[in-house]
Request: fold
Amino acid sequence: MTRPGARQRKQMHLAAQVPGAGSTTVWAGPPSGRRTGFPSFRHLAATAERGLFDFLLLAEGLRLPEHKGRIHDLDAVGRPEPITALSALAAVTERIGLAATADTTFHEPYELARRLASLDHLSGGRAAWHVVASSDAFTGENFRPGAARPDRSECFARAAEFVAAARELWDSWTPGGVPRPFAHHGRHFSVAGTFDVARSPQGHPVVIRAGDAGDEEERESAASAADVFLAGRPGTPEAGRALCADIRRRLAAYGRRPEELKVMPGVTFALGDTDAEAQENAAEIRKQQVSPQGALFALERVWGRDLSGYDPDGPLPGIDPDPAGQVAPGRAPIADPLAVAARWRAVAEAKGLSIRQTVIEMTGRQTFIGTPASVAAQMDEYVTAGAADGFVLLPHHLPGGLDDFADRVVPLLQERGAFRTEYAGATLREHLGLPLPVWKSGRS
Reply:
């Protein structure tokens, strides 16, 4: 809905994500308890609901990244298991969607489909599943020998069959509440029996897939089965329009319509009363994200060497990277470390930067920086141009980093007629404008 007199325009969707682990987020105050304590998550959910967001997404970190065998300082403490935390949040919220990250490599279809359907019932139709597929053997060691699948394409194939099997389980109950036996026999899974959770309020929880917008395989997986594609950082409006057009073009091959998928890039922001103040706040955030130890950790990822003897406030190493070096298990490898190091050296020499300053300069950037009015205008223009359906915000400071956006930017979006002034429905599918899944009796 829009306010009286507001001009009609395409309205955006908004969501917020809490990362699983890493230096993107700076937790305010003492770390003990805040990262795992329920009050932090309750505050975030309440803020997102006050801001009329579509959903709150909890990321999952199944193993904390290590730095030469030690847990990196900003990754300590970890996060609660997402579905458990969201089940608790269902009791203290009314409308906000609740999205849980769950890895298809380390779960089984019956077990996860059951938990997600239960969350959908407990929340009155607000559950979502952020599907991820891990090929990381380092993480797999936490589960069982051979749990990880080093071949990325094989992980995608397993994930696709996993989602299909989960949908068969959800469809094994008729809309009228009659259970029917299910049987799925595929390459990765062979399961049969009777599902013990009735069809949930949304039919199926909303399915979210995330990925690099330029990755062909990730685009295809989103087109085949996702309700929301959480794209990487947005580029130009032209690039965003091309991405949306490409993904929606692929939908027809799976019997799907364009309105059945929402494209929502992940974004960061920094606000200020003036543009200059916003730039200062953005710079301060980047400084907080990169501690001296974190700077050396980032440098070692590029150089592939032990650089613990270097001074973070000193110059970059004069030695070249070792492309075969591996000092950060659980992290994606650097594609071309020699080229990356050359770019970093060029910037460091041109600006006279230390190691830490170089890492801050080369790795930290907010998507939207400015006053609340200018950030609202930038976001509105991007969506109006057809470059996205909305955004998933990654607040830097938690648990209160979403407050300013909800209180200062959302009202301006509403004044523009670019964002809802109230929830029109009760379920997440209604918030997103997604149709209910058609019950397919042939699956059961």
Notes: Residues 1-7 have pLDDT under 50 and may be disordered. The radius of gyration is 22 Å.
